[in-house]
Amino acid sequence: MPCYRLDGLTPVIHPTAYVHPTAVLIGDVIIGPQCYVGPLASLRGDFGRIVLEEGANLQDTCVMHGFPGGDTVIERHGHVGHGAVLHGCRIGADALVGMNAVIMDGAHIAPRCIVGATAFVKAGFECPEQSLVIGAPAQAKRTLSDQEVAWKQRGTAEYQRLAQRCSAALVECPPLSEVEAQRPRMGDCGFRPKGEAQA
């Protein structure tokens, strides 16, 4: 993967984490245990520190960056959807950031919150724990139900399993020129979402 030391600081990836080979890590980046970093994610620790704590995921084309001297952090079991931008902010434990959301400097998304897709979270924003945060500019609209938090947790667990699957079985290969007869689906190849019975 594109991984670059800068000013003597080398990115750190825990052995149980999975970072896609097309993700880019620069400088002061720390990826913790059981994390997943998706294709084309950019983690630029060239000014401040970038941290993914245990079990966090950062999906395709996400960007993490920050100002000099600051930290941009996804806490334990944080979940960041495709295309999100995190700049100098903190995503609390077990929180979810929706696709294409933007979280600005000094913002703190509290634990167990869900930030809606395409939300724009202004610099310095704070919210209570277990809030639904939506809009542009974003606001905490209501308290999430325990069922909504459980839904988020199931999704995060799937990404933790995806990190294991990719570490064990993702192989670069040339494409086929045509669809094979009786082409299996993912569930036929041994993978099933948790809770789905094996045949």
Core attributes:
single chain; 199 residues; mainly beta; UDP N-Acetylglucosamine Acyltransferase, domain 1; 11-stranded parallel sheet; 8-stranded mixed sheet
Q: What features would you describe in this structure?
A:
There is one protein chain. By secondary structure, the chain is mainly beta. It has one domain: UDP N-Acetylglucosamine Acyltransferase, domain 1 (3 Solenoid). It is 12% helix and 32% strand. The protein contains one helix and 19 strands. Strands 1, 2, 4, 6, 8, 9, 11, 12, 14, 15 and 17 form an eleven-stranded parallel beta sheet that branches. Strand 18 and strand 19 form a beta hairpin. The longest helix is centred in the C-terminal third of the chain and has 24 residues. It is globular.
**Total beta strands:** 19
| Strand proportion | 25-35%
Describe the biggest sheet? Answer: 11 strands, parallel
Helix percent reads: 10-25%
Low-pLDDT parts are none
Label the CATH architecture. Answer: 3 Solenoid
EC number: 3.1.2.-
Pfam families: Hexapep
Enzyme class: hydrolase
Organism: Pseudomonas capeferrum
